[in-house]
Q: What sequence folds into this?
């Protein structure tokens, strides 16, 4: 049952032409509640209220007991009264909501309201610039263009001195890794960090307050040490101790997110940055009477720098197991059989943009395998890809050693090979093979001269080395071999004609002649055909040029 004021609001929306769904959304009521009172007249509603007051209630048998508790302990809340009722009555059936509403009406009837617990506050001194920031999270339901409800989760950080704000959103609850990434985005937005950050006791970052010896989640503890800020944890269920950020989260929910249509997470975060620039940090703050964005221009000079987390993931080392697998993110990635050696280490280089993992020898850099990273799974074995044979044939250390032995005493070859390995990860074996083939053709002196030429010009490639060897020797690349005609066509010789003959054939007057000439030519044996006689005075001119089809043309 709703109060008269709520009924009036429902009827007002109805008179304005609202739909039941829209009215429920704006009044923040269940659509079934709105539907119940939508077509109810004022007389019907008054009669409904009267009948509700007169009809017996499920808790009426316990009325005297409840009244006694309220009169004796006026501060006793409905939860404590419900506990007493359930403990003293084995067959007590009413729900908690029924108990709460019944006690609220009973207090109103008896004139014994719940005593207001007034907490005394005092303003704290304004902190110096760069000293403190506050962090909190919130959530709100939006609707997409199709009317479907979407819950978004907000992260907010505010500078305690300037009140400069930052926010970002996810479409799922924040995990510890998400919480850390949100900090990274905030520090990049602000251009640094404060000395201390104030938090609520949220499970994504704190396990226990532990009487001051804070127990944090592993991920967040590692990050706080990495970033270098101090943590101030509020008492549990005490949001007033960090009022600045509580008001910021409320501001974000009731201003930026109010009546907003959800078009996707990227659009929401992009719009949030625009809102911060134009509204959130651009309006005069009610307490400080200053614009946060302007005050922050000075405060940012007091912030400490923080290394970014958003840089590409760093390679790390893992052991090659005796089963020829390497462990990465709780999955097992296969390497070619025979890769295992005692104490052999593999260098793992993940590329999150294309979702690949490169596994190479940590000492020599030899490529062992490349895999697609298996996301969203644990304890799985990732087999070698279908083209795994190329990994089994790859023995960079053997190829490299053969080249080093051939260039013994040359101080440039080692650096040259290292540059090749660095520049041509996937083609190192092919590059080394080109050098090995060149070693069979050229002398040591020629190889040394070509190597020196390439190193001086920063041409670190086996292809450049091969071309340099050809250049220094003065050799031309071998010409393409011409294909020969079959024996029966080699006696055929093409005749040369004056270009005027073609001009005559193409002139409009020569069309009949062309037909006769063509017939005459076709009647002659191919080996005895003569040039067409000129049909006009052009034959008296000197020949301008001759054309000839090459030997062997049919």
A:
């Amino acid at each position: 049952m709703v109060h008269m004021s709520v009924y009036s609001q429902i009827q007002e929306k109805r008179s304005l032409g609202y739909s039941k769904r829209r009215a429920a959304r704006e009044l923040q009521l269940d659509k079934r509640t709105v539907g119940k009172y939508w077509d109810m007249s004022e007389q019907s509603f008054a009669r409904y209220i009267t009948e509700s007051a007169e009809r017996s209630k499920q808790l009426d048998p316990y009325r005297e007991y409840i009244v006694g508790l309220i009169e004796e302990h006026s501060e006793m809340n409905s939860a404590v009264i419900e506990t007493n009722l359930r403990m003293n009555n084995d067959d007590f059936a009413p729900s908690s909501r029924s108990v709460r509403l019944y006690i609220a009406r009973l207090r109103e009837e008896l004139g014994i309201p719940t005593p207001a617990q007034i907490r005394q506050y005092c303003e704290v001194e304004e902190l110096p610039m760069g000293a403190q920031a506050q962090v909190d999270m919130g959530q709100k339901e939006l609707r997409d263009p199709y009317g479907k409800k979407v819950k978004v989760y907000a992260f907010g950080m505010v500078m305690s001195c300037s009140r400069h704000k930052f926010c970002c959103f996810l479409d799922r609850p924040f995990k510890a890794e998400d919480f850390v990434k949100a900090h990274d985005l905030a520090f990049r937005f602000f251009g640094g960090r404060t000395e201390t950050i104030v938090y609520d006791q949220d499970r994504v970052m704190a396990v226990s307050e532990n009487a001051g010896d804070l127990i944090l989640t592993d991920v967040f503890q590692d990050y706080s040490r990495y970033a270098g800020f101090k943590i101030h944890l509020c008492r549990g269920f005490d949001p007033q101790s960090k009022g600045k950020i509580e008001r910021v989260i409320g501001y974000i929910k009731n201003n930026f997110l109010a009546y907003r249509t959800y078009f996707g997470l990227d659009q929401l975060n992009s719009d949030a940055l625009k809102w911060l620039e134009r509204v959130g940090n651009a309006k005069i703050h009610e307490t400080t009477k200053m614009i946060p964005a302007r005050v922050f221009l000075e405060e940012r000079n007091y912030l400490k720098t923080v290394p970014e987390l958003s840089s590409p993931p760093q390679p790390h080392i893992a052991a090659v197991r005796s089963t020829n697998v390497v462990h990465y993110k709780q999955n097992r990635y296969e390497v070619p059989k025979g890769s295992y050696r005692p104490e052999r280490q593999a260098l793992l280089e993940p590329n999150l943009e294309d979702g690949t993992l490169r596994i190479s020898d940590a000492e020599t850099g030899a490529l062992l395998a490349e895999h697609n990273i298996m996301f969203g799974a644990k304890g799985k074995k990732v087999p070698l890809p279908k083209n795994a044979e190329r990994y089994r044939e790859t023995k960079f250390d053997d190829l490299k050693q053969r080249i080093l032995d051939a260039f013994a005493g040359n101080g440039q070859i080692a650096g040259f090979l290292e540059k090749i390995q660095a520049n041509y990860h996937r083609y190192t074996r092919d590059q080394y093979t080109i050098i090995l083939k060149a070693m069979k053709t050229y002398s040591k002196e020629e190889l040394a001269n070509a190597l020196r030429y390439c190193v001086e010009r920063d041409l670190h490639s086996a292809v450049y080395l091969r071309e340099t060897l050809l250049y220094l020797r003065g050799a031309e690349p071998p010409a393409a071999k011409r294909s020969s005609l079959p024996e029966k066509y080699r006696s055929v010789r093409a005749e040369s004609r004056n270009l005027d003959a073609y001009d005559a054939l193409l002139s409009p007057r020569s069309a009949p002649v062309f037909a006769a000439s063509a017939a005459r030519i076709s009647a002659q044996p191919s080996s005895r055909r003569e040039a067409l006689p000129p049909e006009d005075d052009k034959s008296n001119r000197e020949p301008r040029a001759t054309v000839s089809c090459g030997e062997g043309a049919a």
The first strand starts at residue 132 and ends at 143.
